[in-house]
Amino acid sequence: MTSFQIARVDFTKDAVVVWKSQHENHGNWPVVYVLDNGRNSNANNSLRDIYVGESLNAAHRLRQHLETPTKKHLKNVRVIFHEKFNKSVCLDLESYLIKMLAGDGANQVLNRNNGITEARYYQRDAYREGFRTIFEHLRADGVFTRTIPEIENSDLFKLSPFKALTEDQANSVEEIVNRLLAEIERDEGSAIVIQGDPGTGKTVVAIYLIKLLIDIKTFDSLEDMDSDSRFSNFFTQANQRLLHDFKIGLVVPQQSLRETIKAVFKKTRGLDPRMIMNPFVAGEAEGNFDLLIVDETHRLNQRANQPSGVLNAKFTKITRELFGRDDTSKTQLDWILAKSRHQIFLLDAMQSVRPADLPAEVLSDLVADTRATGRHFQLRTQMRVQAGSDFVSYVRWILDPRPLSVPRVRLQFGDYDFRSFGNVAEMRDLVFQRNAEVGLSRMVAGYAWAWKSKKDKTAFDIEIGETQLRWNSVPTDWVSSNNALEEVGSIHTVQGYDLNYVGVIIGLDLRFDLERKRLFIDRKSYFDTKGKEGNKTLGKTCSDDDLLKFITQIYGVLMTRGIRGTYVYACDPGLRQYIADFIPSGSSTPVNSALNPNGNAMIY
What we know:
Layout lengths: L4 E6 L2 H9 L9 E6 L11 E8 L2 H9 L9 E6 L5 H18 L2 E3 L14 H17 L7 H5 L2 H4 L8 H19 L4 E7 L5 H17 L18 H6 L5 E4 L3 H12 L9 E2 L1 H6 L4 E6 L14 H15 L8 H8 E8 L12 H13 L3 E4 L9 H10 L18 E5 L2 H15 L2 E5 L16 E3 L2 E5 L15 E3 L1 H4 L4 E8 L3 E4 L4 E4 L22 H15 L3 E9 L2 H8 L24
Parallel strand pairs: 3-5, 6-10, 6-11, 7-8, 7-9, 9-10, 12-20, 13-16, 13-17, 15-16, 17-20
Antiparallel strand pairs: 1-4, 2-3, 2-4, 14-15, 18-19
Pfam families: SLFN-g3_helicase
Organism: Clohesyomyces aquaticus
Protein name: GIY-YIG domain-containing protein
């Protein structure tokens, strides 16, 4: 697609009238256009306002925008033409440019979130290749400030509310909003659960839902609304009245992910970073919320020893204020239910990683209750791992703590780069190589080494043979930090994030007994104190079986971060031999294998 044209027009009534008279296609041809207010010189607000649209009658649509109060301040128009454009192509290009502009970091995108979805059409792949050429021309003209790889590797892009939804995501969003609006009208409360494996886009759905609800609440005109968009029917004055003064909060238990989402909200029109909070802030908030959305619900806490005395005191204080007494059976889930009229819980019980996390039976009851009322939604489409949805279940199957009693078969994942290594230095070198090629490639590990470098910046934390490594030097947004490539991230810095390639070091906290044919843990090699301590308040201990469950789930999370590839090195020789039967070798260092010539496990 090389014969496209980009016309520059001043965003004034006179200029648009003149431009329309220059060619009949300016009023009768499918196009995509970009409106902006130029580079913003205000030091306190350096973001440029920008809007992307598509139309069969560009001149008419531009005149409509000139009468819209929220767009009158815009100055420039770029109209993109191509002789082979059609409605489907223009909708797709519009979606692509919105996503890329939101991820660029220099813009505040003015578009509403009314239904960007992944639609198929004739020769879509060929057209999409041409989109990249259009991007480069717009970048040369100053519309974009970053390259395509830089944008696609950014958190702003990955967590943008303008992401195109998969079909199961879009179906869930549509049904949830329908139910929510109906329940608000009937003055009824509700609880909804959205479940999904790693990479199915639970966080994306949460952010998308908030943006959609805020846009319905605040829209001021329907003139520039595409009636064909998936969620355009929600934009009515009746729904706007229902959402008047509707107070929404997003609860994110993990500190790193919470700060990253705040950065996205800061650059998204209608969203406010103050909407994002930890469970303590939600519990202490003045007044109640109409809707609380909880991401990573499985990381909410039950009553347990907190990381600090201050938080222990807060747990008691919040529980007493909400329930009239210090009831130790109450969890942060109970806080959320008490502080909101409506709740949406996003969860994956297989990603619980500490004894203080909500007990499995509490999560099971929550899922069962919402299933019984038809308020349970399952996300199945794998958005992260290019190996597909079977990869997550395969990784969890490899890490299943139960003793092996039947032969297992190695699965193949096509072009997905899945390898095990007998030498950690070789794996690290390959991670460096992949980062040079496509960026966003990182090393991660289980918490099997003390964090010496936290106090002594010259110390090394992880020493395996001659390889010396340090833990992450920053607690928030580590994957995008300057030194991340040289460091190793833990579960607390990468849960919820995407990487292009991930190199996973399995420490001596997890081992494999070749005679008993089962995984086991070495408690003294696990250095997350909060990850293995008992719960004196509730009279619970963290048994070896409990810890084995948490540690295998941690490695399950770490091994499902990679979009393009996953590399694994195990410190324990028995575990190295075990995983070599199920993960192809990528190392020049020999690893014993128990596979027969057909690739089936003989011993296990």
